[in-house]
């Protein structure tokens, strides 16, 4: 009889839904939003947890951060919280949660190893390779054979282009996990990059040595011609100077011959060079103060005469020469002695080398 009364009561309760709609039911338009407010069904956690808007989530968070619980339990909850953030690719918050778990200083070394390893992974995806490597090393110190920590340490070293250390991480890891496919792949990658880096270093040294020889030959050619450099070159002291110091001094001497200090964009970077036939080519700047104009020849061969270039440069009158005065046969050339602040006239039929060998030549 009691069973019958109960069934009648349930039937009556269910019958009410046929005529009276449930007031708090989800609608077709908002059911997804409403479900997303329930922690179990949330796709992503909100940035800020408002107790009024998310009471259930606020309650769960208060349980996680309950300071009255044992450190191990708190650390585990923070690890789980960090894992949830990690799955959402919110690596910054994952780092915060893992760090909070480590601050609990629980006695569970296995848990601490996982916290360090997981934080290393979060740092890795944030691009913080040094921090990731430090965490991987901390996890390895607690548990030397922890596979994920060993893999992460090797990955960090590769990203930091520290290939010898990457190989060391892999070799140590393979002692404990000799058949792990990921470790074997990482070791092969590290070894490949290490060999490539060593090859590039050798090539760079050969190139550097070649450039040094070219600079030495250039400096010797300039000295042999008796050309006065813009700044004097300090004499070498073979007895005490190292090769690096000698190279730096030679490089500095050649650098003094560049025209980098001039304002013209076309001139920047031009330098004297020695060609395969042993001829010097100089950057030469022509200034026309009367009209505030200039011309620039980046590679004026030392054997060429000024008149040859002037004939080409003024084959057609420049637009700024409204008085038609700048004809090749009318032009007068001067070079400036920078130190003495004096001008010297140059014969247009003279070669560049002859002008450079002038006893007072300090720059054209």
Automatic annotation (TrEMBL):
Molecular functions per Gene Ontology: Hsp70 protein binding; Hsp90 protein binding
Protein name (database record): Tetratricopeptide repeat domain 4
Chain ranges of the Cns1/TTC4 wheel domain: 275-359
Disordered: annotated span: 233-252
Keywords: Repeat, TPR repeat
Keyword Repeat appears in the UniProt entry: yes
Repeat in keyword set: yes
One Pfam family recorded for the sequence: Wheel
Family: Belongs to the TTC4 family.
């Amino acid at each position: 009889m009691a069973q019958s009364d109960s069934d009648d009561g349930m039937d009556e309760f269910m019958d009410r839904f046929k005529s009276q709609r449930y007031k708090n039911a989800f609608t077709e338009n908002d059911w997804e939003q409403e479900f997303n407010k329930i922690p179990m069904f949330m796709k992503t956690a909100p940035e800020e947890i408002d107790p009024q808007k998310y009471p259930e989530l606020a309650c769960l968070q208060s349980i996680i951060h309950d300071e009255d619980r044992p450190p191990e339990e708190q650390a585990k909850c923070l690890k789980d919280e960090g894992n949830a953030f990690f799955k959402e690719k919110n690596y910054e918050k994952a780092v915060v949660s893992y760090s909070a778990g480590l601050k609990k200083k629980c006695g569970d070394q296995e848990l601490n190893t996982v916290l360090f390893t997981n934080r290393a992974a979060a740092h890795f995806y944030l691009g913080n390779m040094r921090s990731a490597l430090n965490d991987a090393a901390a996890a390895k110190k607690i548990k030397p054979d922890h596979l994920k920590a060993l893999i992460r340490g090797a990955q960090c070293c590769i990203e930091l282009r520290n290939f010898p250390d990457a190989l060391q991480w892999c070799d140590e890891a393979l002692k404990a996990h000799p058949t792990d496919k990921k470790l074997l792949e990482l070791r092969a990658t590290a070894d490949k990059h290490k060999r490539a880096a060593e090859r590039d270093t050798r090539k760079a040294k050969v190139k550097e040595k070649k450039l040094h020889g070219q600079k030495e030959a250039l400096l010797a050619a300039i000295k042999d011609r008796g050309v006065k450099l813009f700044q004097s070159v300090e004499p070498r002291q073979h007895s005490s100077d190292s090769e690096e110091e000698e190279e730096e001094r030679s490089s500095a001497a050649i650098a003094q011959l560049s025209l980098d200090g001039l304002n013209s964009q076309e001139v920047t970077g031009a330098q004297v060079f020695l060609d395969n036939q042993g001829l010097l080519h100089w950057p030469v700047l022509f200034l026309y103060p009367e009209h505030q104009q200039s011309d620039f020849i980046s590679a004026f061969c030392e054997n060429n005469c000024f008149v040859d270039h002037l004939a080409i440069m003024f084959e057609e009158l420049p637009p700024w020469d409204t008085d038609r005065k700048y004809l090749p046969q009318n032009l007068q050339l001067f070079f400036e002695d920078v130190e003495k602040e004096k001008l010297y006239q140059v014969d247009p039929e003279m070669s560049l080398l002859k002008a450079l060998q002038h006893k007072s030549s300090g720059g054209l």
